[in-house]
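Q: I'm writing up a methods section and want to include an example of the input and output format. Could you take the sequence below and give the corresponding predicted structure tokens, formatted cleanly so I can copy it straight into the document?
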Amino acid sequence: MPRLNPWTVLVAKASQARWMIRRDPVAGDRLLLLVVGSYGISLVVLLALAGHSPGEALRWTALNTLPTAAVTVLGGAVLFYLVCLVAVRRPASPFATLRRDIAFVIANPQRSLPIAWLLLLMVFFTAFFSAWKAMIPQLQPFAWDPAFSQMDRWLHGGTHPWRYTHAVFSSALATSIINLIYHLWFVVIHFSVIWVAVSRGHSQLRLQYLLSFFLAWIIVGTILAIAFSSAGPCYFERVTGLASPYADLMQRLELQQLRYPVWALGVQELLWANHVRGANGMTSGISAMPSMHVGTCVLLVLLACRLGSRRAVVCATFFLFCILVGSVHLGWHYAVDGYAAGLIMLPIWWIAGKVTRHRLDSLHGETMNQDKR
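A: Here is the clean output for your methods example:
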């Protein structure tokens, strides 16, 4: 038999993989690739205009952030699977089920490749966002903290809103619970994106959520974060040089930490240390306005409403409330950071819905809700 050219085999396999991905109405839509690719290319162009060499641009956009992003996204996907296996499916033999699932994935690449493609897009997008966020203080020094602080006070009857949250949730235990829920945001949002990626139904809703998610981080977490660059209450004195109206808040959190863990304080110091030394990575960016914690939770509520599950809506709304309170209670954000992000999410969601509905109607026709083949 004639010996096959390895390159020919590789090209054939790549073409077959591309065909399998294209069959999925969400992963096969080039819109997400266009959004993620444009986000990364714009960062490279900006670095080039700023005088950075190609090697420096590569380091900023990929080498410093891509490994951590890959571990975060892919590790999160594995954790999501294990949680579903143990808590939802609850088979008699988890290890036997795990082996069968792995064998199924290998034997059915038409099911697994679209999911792998979406996860790969998330890896690159996470890396790009981390690089963008680390650059915010260089592109626009922190200048809006005094204005947002005054706006907060004006909107809340002449009192900074953290005083209200600490009046209601006054104990150290309450603060620690709020802190725990606030840190769970990362897991909840991460799991929501992975769940959308692996789901087989609701094609239009899946594409709308993923597009809204990407656009939110680009528009709210990058463009507006640069335009309204601010550090947040916990860094107020450090970035403004003014007497901080949040000194009592931070002192109160320090005292409460003596009784129960308040992890936010350690994370805040880590971020500031990395900011001072000019680090570029997943734990080096500081940005308060607008609050992506609150904004992404609003997307969760919108997703739950579209799914039509009353329980999901209640849980998502409660989680949104906890994150909004926690962002102020722990000194991360001004309340207006959350209000602004929440309001901006609504038109992003609406526009993404219009765009995805049009694309699926025109490109996939009758197959937009027929994902199981």
